[in-house]
Design goal:
single chain, mainly alpha
Length: about 400
């Protein structure tokens, strides 16, 4: 889960991007979506949706690709490379930019608490050979992840560009290994754990899985920075988005397939600990960068904050974001705490994408207006229909 940079496509705007804009845009789309969600979401979806998991994944990928196509077509010639907030602000007004920044600033804190709780669940599963029951046993571990990441975010450290470039690849390989050996293949084993609420109807569980997947889908909006930077025409822009969507689909559907065929029995203890430790380390690195991202977004909400955000968020703001993450972590102690915390990023993505669709209806040509209006109706329908289904969670 990450915010696309203000000039997300800046690195692709050189001669290589000019020659191959489809590949450059596809790389930005895939790189924007594929992150901490790779190890987190396959077991979450399997725990909630069971055998219907592939259908939930397919629905999300189709919706995500649609969002990316609409946003790319909207911003390609109308705005320069910008974040989603900057793009909707340029097209709808400053109020829209502040709304998107506001919801994402809050959502990032809830999302980090969910990531920390997942890391804690991985460690407890390694210790016991089975997913832990819901409760406060994992709270010290989750808080530990958040404290370590928050303390690091307060310091001067940054990851080298090479580390950030290779981190998604390492995360993907680790997610594949965890799907095969670290998590039980039987969805019933997850009932009453941090990954699945007890007492939720099968329909409610499907809706929760689909809503939580918006966490994995934070990143489709990377096209608002990448599409204008490539300078590609409408056909090549669409091809790049579709190619990136296909890459995301291969990764996530592949992970879901491996997760669905995982062994029902526990893996050998040394392997469990190795995978759990690596998962906790990788996810802590994402929390570290995301805490700074949330502080940078929050800095843009007050006068003069946009100028200072470019130099990096103030330490007091980073500390406030870290404290908010720890506060959200207490909500993870209940059963199903991880997907319920992921509803924060889901609500932010839904809000941002809906405003993007509204901008397409207002500023697009006939075809883009129709696509934006239909997307807006689908997003509104998901919110309206999903509310009652999730009321028992």
């Amino acid at each position: 889960m990450r915010e696309p940079p203000e000039a997300a496509g800046a690195g692709t705007a050189g001669s290589g991007a000019a020659r191959r804009p489809e590949r450059a845009l596809a790389a930005q789309v895939a790189g924007g979506v594929l992150g901490a969600g790779m190890p987190v979401m396959p077991p979450v979806v399997a725990a909630l949706a069971g055998g219907s998991g592939p259908l939930v994944w397919t629905a999300h990928l189709l919706l995500g690709g649609w969002v990316a196509l609409v946003l790319a077509a909207l911003v390609r010639t109308r705005v320069g490379p910008a974040s989603l907030a900057g793009a909707v602000g340029a097209l709808l007004g400053t109020w829209a930019e502040r709304v998107v920044d506001g919801v994402f600033a809050v959502a990032f804190t809830a999302g980090q608490a969910a990531i920390a709780w997942f890391a804690a669940t991985a460690l407890l599963t390694a210790a016991d050979g089975a997913p832990p029951r819901a409760g406060t046993d994992g709270l010290p571990l989750a808080l530990g992840v958040l404290v370590v990441a928050g303390a690091a975010a307060l310091g001067p450290w940054t990851f080298p560009a090479a580390v950030l470039r290779w981190r998604p690849w390492v995360t993907g390989v680790l997610a594949l290994a965890c799907a095969a050996w670290a998590w039980p293949g039987d969805p019933a084993a997850w009932a009453g754990t941090p990954l699945a609420p007890s007492g939720l109807s099968s329909q409610g569980a499907l809706w929760l899985a689909l809503a939580a997947l918006f966490f994995a889908g934070v990143g489709w909006e990377a096209v608002t920075g990448a599409a204008p930077a490539t300078g590609a025409g409408p056909g090549r822009t669409a091809a790049g988005v579709l190619l990136g969507t296909a890459a995301v689909a291969v990764v996530y559907l592949g992970l879901a397939a491996v997760q669905g065929r995982a062994s029902p029995g526990p893996a050998p203890e040394p392997l469990r600990w190795a995978l759990a430790g690596a998962t906790a380390a990788v996810l802590t690195s994402y929390v570290f960068t995301n805490v700074r991202t949330a502080a940078r977004i929050a800095a843009r909400l007050y006068p003069g904050g946009r100028r200072s955000a470019g130099r990096g968020p103030a330490r007091v703001l980073v500390a406030a974001v870290g404290a908010a993450c720890c506060a959200f972590a207490w909500a993870g102690a209940r059963d199903g705490g991880v997907p319920l915390l992921l509803l924060g990023p889901a609500a932010a993505a839904l809000t941002g994408y809906a405003l993007g669709a509204a901008a397409a209806v207002r500023h697009g040509g006939p075809l883009l207006r129709c696509a934006g209006a239909l997307l807006l109706l689908v997003l509104a329908g998901l919110a309206v229909l999903g509310g009652p289904a999730l009321s028992g969670a």
